[in-house]
Amino acid sequence: MSHTPTRADFDQYMVPNYSPQQVIPVRGEGSRLWDQQGREYIDFAGGIAVNALGHCHPALVEALTAQANTLWHLSNVYTNEPALKLAKALVERTFADKVFMCSSGGEANEAALKLARRYAHDHHGEHKDKIISFRQSFHGRTFFTVSVGGQPKYSQGFGPVPGGILHAEFNDLESVRQLVGDDTCAIMVEPMQGEGGIVPATPEFLSGLRELCDEHDALLIFDEVQTGVGRSGKLYAYMHYGVTPDILTSAKSLGGGFPVGAMLTTDAIAPSMGIGTHGSTYGGNALASAVALAAVETIDTPEVLEGVQARHELFRELLESINRKHEVFKEVRGMGLLIGAQMSDAWEGRAKDILPLAIEEGLMALIAGPNVLRMAPSLVIPDADIREGMARLERAVERLVSQG
């Protein structure tokens, strides 16, 4: 007898580290989803900035289908053509010379941090092991990355955290100067903090970090897991700033929904990750690489990237229109199609209360902490879907205000 899963099955069979919404989407097309009852939703969540081309984009479906009928997985005892094509495409489009493939952003950041420490060990000695990160940052859920991330709630209760990790204040260069020294091996930063509230870095801050790294022979790591592959309006957010990192991490939009991650670096640094120093069973998987290449080639076009900025302006215009009526937001901020609306003082900490109301109105959205409503839709979401989605959001906000 066939069984149709329900939300209750999650509570019965799954480890309770998530608390998903009651609806179960079963089909997606473009920027719309349908649940088990056939109810339609507009998707402003984008799988948390993953579904960069929406759901079931023809270019990704074609790439996946063609590869699925050819070769799925080998292991890194061998290489494969899709992985080599993806690596070449990333190198040709960025500052990088070399690429390490993995399956997620957390793995990409883990690799970046290990490479930075190994490089410092090889070139300067064991004493040079300090890593500087920033409060409210988020770099993944491995124990190393969650410790480097600047939100202690994610590492509490798991035992002693790795040593040699310091946290400064984001967008405060002086706080970094107080921590950096000749024992610093790397500074890790998001060009725009995502989980920390959708806060873009200032140009002065990032250029100052570059100068401090150069002064102290430290590596500058940009975590572009959430901001990368078109999300900011350029292929990678560092391109907005004119600041080039030594190591860059990428995931989320890179696969357009297929699990894949990558760490990018230079010829000068890559040799420290020599044979046997690091690995990933699924890294460079043929299926993932084929889909990611299709995503990169589709996104890295003037039509898509210029469209991101136009869509950003429409989102901002409609959010500010909602706010003029209801005064629930203090500030709308972000870059490209990673947008945050910070709640006003009167609605402090109430961003999460909008989400279930939005679901009832047929809209999927996100939060970035308790005080910021977050939107990370498809980079090619039609204007009509933006307008309809914002109309649904306004109805949810109206209900929030009426409930008090």
UniProtKB/TrEMBL annotation:
Reaction(s) this enzyme catalyzes, per UniProt: N(2)-acetyl-L-ornithine + 2-oxoglutarate = N-acetyl-L-glutamate 5-semialdehyde + L-glutamate
InterPro entries according to UniProt: Ac/SucOrn_transaminase_bac, AcOrn/SuccOrn_fam, Aminotrans_3, Aminotrans_3_PPA_site, Class-III_PLP-dep_AT, PyrdxlP-dep_Trfase, PyrdxlP-dep_Trfase_major, PyrdxlP-dep_Trfase_small
Annotated metabolic or biological route of this protein: Amino-acid biosynthesis; L-arginine biosynthesis; N(2)-acetyl-L-ornithine from L-glutamate: step 4/4
Compartment list: Cytoplasm
Keyword Amino-acid biosynthesis among UniProt keywords: yes
Coiled coil regions, renumbered to chain: none
GO CC term (a single one): cytoplasm
Top enzyme category: transferase
Keywords, comma-separated and alphabetical: Amino-acid biosynthesis, Aminotransferase, Arginine biosynthesis, Cytoplasm, Pyridoxal phosphate, Transferase
Residues modified as N6-(pyridoxal phosphate)lysine: K252
NCBIfam families for the chain: arg_catab_astC, argD, PRK01278.1, PRK05093.1, PRK12381.1
Protein name: Acetylornithine aminotransferase
Organism expressing this protein natively: Halomonas urumqiensis
Gene, per the UniProt record: argD
